[in-house]
């Protein structure tokens, strides 16, 4: 089964979770309300998928592993884009971040890039549970086979900056993820978040 | 939002100002500036409350190894300790690189 960081998984049940530590109370509450977990950027362990559970509060995050047979469905961020899932949301007119996705859609469409919303917005679109707040940043991943040119990155940043919401765009290549903004600035070292942890790498096109 | 302060003794001077990192989930911005005082003063503004002890541990470990008199401002968006340490190392490196370029 192929899963990538940020994919959401609908799980068969709370009891399937494999945890090192005793999970906090809110974990069961959260999963009863919405049985979705997010794939973490970490190595598989004994064939088990590294996942995270999000609670109502910002500090409520819990890491665990999931056996593959506990997976009911995998929803990728890019799937939400194909169907413009945000337009079906009952909160489309209430949350500026959801309407902003229409403009972002046009931009990425123009560059022919595969992308999707993650974080609280992605979670809300999949689970139907109001998770995004007025103050939420819009987290986006762009999936690429390799790093784009620095020129493309700069143009993307310039276009996205015109949209009046706070956005955090990560470029996901097979080796890991880098911030689009940091990448576009062309500094000598950039932070790559890889499956084996974060590391500083030399900018590939500098 | 939570603001934390830390202070350590220091003897060596930081060559030059450095700004690294980005605003974004799981990341942080660091501004490191030379200080005339023989101290390292760190201000952390973090979006995630309740991690004061972790910050104390991570920063103390770093500034014990790297002795630099500096004023450090950190703007954190839920970075892991690994990312924090790496960004601090990057700030030091950029400060030294910038110094070489300006020579």
TrEMBL record, chain A:
GO terms for molecular function: nucleotidyltransferase activity. It comes from the Bacteria. Residues 92-204 form the Phosphoribosyl-dephospho-CoA transferase MdcG C-terminal domain. Keywords: Nucleotidyltransferase, Transferase. It comes from Parageobacillus caldoxylosilyticus NBRC 107762. Residues 5-77 form the Phosphoribosyl-dephospho-CoA transferase MdcG N-terminal domain. InterPro entries: Holo-ACP_synthase, MdcG_C, MdcG_N. The keyword Kinase does not apply. This is Phosphoribosyl-dephospho-CoA transferase. Pfam families: MdcG (PF10620), MdcG_N (PF20866). The lineage of its organism: Bacteria, Bacillati, Bacillota, Bacilli, Bacillales. NCBIfam families: malonate_mdcG (TIGR03135), PRK01293.1 (NF002332).
From TrEMBL, chain B:
The keyword Membrane does not apply. One of its GO terms (cellular component) is cytoplasm. The gene is mdcC. HAMAP family: Malonate_deCO2ase_dsu. InterPro entries: Mal_deCO2ase/Cit_lyase_ACP, Malonate_deCO2ase_dsu. The modification O-(phosphoribosyl dephospho-coenzyme A)serine is found at residue 25. Keywords: Cytoplasm, Phosphoprotein. Its main location: cytoplasm. Covalently binds the prosthetic group of malonate decarboxylase. The keyword Cytoplasm applies. It comes from Parageobacillus caldoxylosilyticus NBRC 107762. It is found in: Cytoplasm. Pfam families: ACP. This is Malonate decarboxylase acyl carrier protein.
